[in-house]
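step: validate -> pass
step: tokenize input -> pass
step: predict -> running
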Amino acid sequence: MEDQERYQIGKREEAGRYPVTVDENPAGHIYRRHGSWYAVMPGHPTSTARPDRYAAAAELVRMIDRGQRPTIPTQAPAPASPLQPMPHELAGYAHLVPDLRLTLANLVRAAEATARLDQLAWTPLTGYPGADQPWLLRCRLCGWEGYRFWSHLRGRNGDGIPRPITRHPGCIPVAKQKIALIDLAEERTFECRCEFRHPTFLSECLDVLDSIQNALNGGDSTKAIVFARGILEPCSASGRRALALRAAHDRRANALRPLKRKKS
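step: predict -> pass
step: emit ->
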């Protein structure tokens, strides 16, 4: 109770962070990620998961009581490259590596989300962060850049209706959006027409997923991301690619299920 009287949680920022003051002085921020809450004091980050926002804010109070103070100005973190240094062959798509644990499931989800964004005239500027995290996107109808949640864009309860209907503040009028989306749809194709051949057939997707998993099994995440180029790069046939990747992933999962049962 004493901790609650000492901290104050501010309004959510566009990037999904909540500024927190302790004893009326800026102490850091808290944020929610995949069901848990985390507290960050600039210069003294902590990654301990907390059950709710209040517990995360109370963590900042405890850090203050331990004598810790913010040592750098509070500012939005710059998106970091997933690999340092970045190999040349990854330069065109490394920023699209999912901001999640590198797994086949997350790569396939990223491909599915990206394909739907393409249909809705959004361009991702960072990697897929998960459904309930702010995602930095660019609106292809007007050029606006800002954060949106994939859980809002994919629709609710499977209805596939993106929200909000106005897309974002300052976008072109809703009455003109339909025509603009139809015009952009002409860029999408059934076959991949890219210079680099992206997998759009089941057999191709199975090969790509096998290569990625073998690299991950060997502990080589850089090699895995090199193989993931076919999944992460923009493609004119992104919709077909996403369907083929989902089918390939499900086939692998079904084939491995009996083997896991035998081991158990």
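step: describe -> Confidence is low (pLDDT under 50) at residues 74-86.
step: cleanup -> pass
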